[in-house]
Amino acid sequence: MPRRLDLESILLIGSGPIVIGQACEFDYSGTQACRVLRDEGYRVILANSNPATIMTDPDFADATYVEPLRADVLQAIIDKERPDALLPTLGGQTALNLAIELFEAGVLEQYGVELIGADAEAIATAEDRERFKVAMQEIGLKVPRSGIAHNMDEARSVVEDIGLPVVIRPAYILGGRGTGIASTPEEFDKAAATGIDASPISEILIEKSIAGWKEYELEVMRDHADNCVVICSIENLDPMGVHTGDSITVAPAQTLTDLEYQEMRDAAFACLRRVGVETGGSNVQFAVDPDTGDQVVIEMNPRVSRSSALASKATGFPIAKIATKLAIGYTLDEIPNDITKKTPAAFEPTIDYVVTKIPRWAFEKFPGTSGVLGTSMQSVGEVMAIGRTFPESLQKGMRSLENGRLGLNGDPAEAAVDELDDGALLLAASVATPARITQIEALLRRGVPLEEVYEATKVDPWFLDQILSISEERLHLESLVGSEVEGRGLVPELDRRDWRRVKQLGFADAQLAYLWGCNPVDVRMAREMAGVLPTYKTVDTCGAEFEAETPYHYSAWEDEDEVRASDRPKVMILGSGPNRIGQGIEFDYCCVHASFALREAGYETIMVNCNPETVSTDYDTSDRLYFEPLTAEDVLNVAVAEKPVGIIVSLGGQTPLKLASELPVELVAGTSPASIDLAEDREQWNVMCVRLGIPQPPGGTAIDADGARSIAADVGYPVLVRPSYVLGGRAMEIVYDDAELERAMSELSGFGSLGIEGGLSAERPVLVDRFLEDATEVDVDAVRDHVGEVVIGAVMEHVEEAGVHSGDSACIIPPPHLAPEVVSTIEQHTRAIAEALDVRGLINVQYAVKVEAAGSAAEVYVIEANPRASRTVPFVAKATGVPLAKVASRVMLGATLAELRAEGLLRDRVVGDHVAVKEAVLPFDRFPEADPVLGPEMRSTGEVMGIDMTTGLAFTKSQISAGGALPETGTVFLSLADRDKAVGLEAALGFVELGLELVATSGTANYLRSHGIEVSTVVAKLGEEGTDAVELVRSGVVQLVVNSPRGRGPRADGEHIRAAAGEQGIPLLTTGNAALAAARGLSDWRRHPLSVRTLQEYHDGVCRPPVDDD
């Protein structure tokens, strides 16, 4: 039937910031939904708080609200826009939970808004653990023995009946948050309490543990005519007990018999029908007993999920797009397949290759965490690899992770497993950790029987046998050169068939070079001399039964190449690889914008990336998509096949930038590799800054502790220590004395916290600079063209002082506290640096502004310059209306800013009075063992944006969006370092004027009282008599915690206080400046009623009404 004609406007809710368990896959799904709805003629209203998304570009919806995703804010949007329907199934758990909240509050009924895609009853049946269990039992499907609890008494009663071990699963959560396995009464009490607290309805399912069973997922779709299809089957390599988001997964499922698969398929359809999902995509998870084959249903998501993005990229079937069409009335048989053009969406995809997804973790960012994987998701990103066999796919995935691995071992990082004997290694592999897959390979290579490895790990024997084939080939390859010194350093002679076998098992040239002790360039040359080059196959949804129209490719080592010739000028865009802390969706945004802009300019765009969650790896974002690892070998292979006129390396973050020197220099578009190195090379950089007359903190470079100590003696403590050529402040630290400097250098040089990324050398020295305490940090994004014109995107003032990584600090446009002459100086310095570096495209420059003495002029110091896209580019574009990434991509290919101005692509900054605040979103709720204090190493997973007519309102909105809504009543706990007490005094005065009560530690209380501010309670230190701070925070009396660390000295009290705030979900501020911004924000929030405006309104210019002088 045709689309619904009774609907005119549809509200979409996005998923908000990138958090663990909910990443940029929902930008991908939301962007597809916006496109479909607008193409079908609906008015699209979008609400999302994440500025780094493509979906929040004002071109994708008719009304784009970058506002907090909270029920009262959404009600204000509904009141203003009056949508006919709400589509909640494409914005992850966030959108689903908000839809239910609006439904239960009567808001949807009040405004006549219909839920489409999944109704409230279906959502509740799937998300409410008890209702889902009963529903499955009603239709004869098995579920693990379980019970429901809403408090600890009920929980203990259930576990007494079921018996340990058990799994605790909270209702209405994402990424397994709050789930856990308990084997003892003590573990159970802790896990149950955590689960009840994590569930928005305080409900947990207590389920008999089936850890060790095999885990599967089916991605399924249903339309209102009851047509049902399986899009993709997915099998977890790890057994039950590891969250599927933390498991290596494989598509299609490899170890099910046909009978078992048909049983699972029928069960998934029955589940879909009983839950009541009438239209759209769902994800159903199963566990299978490896001994008996018995199947049980674990859970289902009545929405597009993380696995939906993986299934879409794995098969080429656009689940989010089709789900949107089904929600507005179409049936599967009416929707054509985009790739074949000949088959309908009712045809189940068939694939003739193997897809492997591998998670990317960031435990190195959170000292104190165990690194053990469990039922609560902890990974921050993932990669996907496509191969003709599982070993090829697995090894491609391993080298896609960008964590120093070249494949499944066969690289320097394997030294960690080589140190362990067989018994220790088998014991290590029995525990689920990110290293388990490499431990398994080492065990099999050493000859440990496959059966023993299975008993220790419960990884299916089929997977172990496939890994063994890699190990056996490796042993053969090593035997070709032997252990003799004279045999190493040379590439052994292999014939064409041998080379192909090696490559079909996924071995990279760099792996072979490591095994043979030679240069990867020599390996490549020998392979090509043997006539062995990759061919490229097409993802076609139909196992080559029909011709594919969409050029979506992956490499193989076969005879037939499926890439079609083209005579248009081509530009390759290198994506940013897996999401990780320090390099996330912001860089994918820039790559997508480059593709859009260059396609419009007549270029054929070629995207190379390996991240299944992103818009960049949607098959219709670029003219051609290569789903390949971002390594020198793989990128050069694509370049040889496609012969581009340019390769863009400066938009995808550090990943492609590190490849620049290995690519033909004439193909690197924009700023040259030499200029990129100039910005990183400390000696050249210092000379340049002196020549330009731009002050910088004194410092130098060191490759060992002696050199670092010498620099510190010259410049004085504290010093900022940071390795070069890293992103996200990796291993950056502020140190206050020689002992701390020794420890920091030891970590860096000894493969400590940088172990997975490489150590130190003359090529990768440590930068040691004087740290400017109490300075204001400032970021600038700008674009320069080849004729020398520079456009300043924005000058951003940070809320937190220098020393907090820019990615973790809130920042504000326009800068509220910088004098006009300071801003002018910063802009002049930025233009001079861009000119000196001969930048062709984007540049980000960071400054510290410091007033040395009261009454003196502010001094502007340059900290660093990065001639590439920064993570603030999307935020600047949303705040100012200038599409910086699109402009930069055209400039990189030779256009001038004047030409782009004439075209209309480059427009002037919006003239208006609005203020935009970017705030970081931190994942400490997933890592309760880590101290949630901010510092020079970045630890945020995502960001949000607050936008309004005052700095205070915008800041308050940003805090709500980030999940730390500031309290309007109650008690504020203050414990401030001496350096923060002056600014803390101003913040405390603001809190008191708002009617908030203050409690404080003795030093802070004495300081506040000496300045006339009343403190109701003085809190005892830990171990002293009286109520201590941790007790107070845990008691529920406190609504906001302000606790700043005292340098790097003893700070056990502070760590415990911050940890307690995290446990209780109490907003936590760790700098005095943030506390002051919060006090001012709450003041504005109280004075002004909530107002919501679209991004389109802000980009047209919104001004404050003139103040009446009468």
Tell me what the structure shows.
The chain has 1110 residues and is α/β, with parallel strands linked by helices. The chain has a seven-stranded antiparallel sheet, with helices on both faces. Helix 14 (422-429) runs antiparallel to helix 15 (436-445), helix 19 crosses helix 20 and helix 21 packs across helix 30. The N and C termini lie far apart (63 Å). The model is unreliable at 751-762 (pLDDT under 50).
Please tag this protein with its features.
seven-stranded antiparallel β-sheet, alpha/beta, globular, single chain
Total helical segments:
38
The N- to C-terminal Cα distance equals: 63 Å
**Overall body shape:** globular
Which structural category do the helix and sheet elements fall into? alpha/beta
The tally of strands reads 38
Portion of residues in beta strands equals 15-25%
Q: What is the residue-mean pLDDT, rounded to a whole number?
A: 90
Q: Order of strands across the biggest sheet?
A: 14-13-10-11-12-15-16
The helix content is 25-40%
Largest sheet: 7 strands, antiparallel
Round the Cα radius of gyration to an integer and report it.
29 Å
Low-confidence stretches: 751-762
How would you describe the oligomerization state of the chains in this entry?
Answer: single chain
Give a brief outline of the structure:
The protein has 1110 residues and is α/β, with parallel strands linked by helices. Helix content is 36%, strand content 18%.
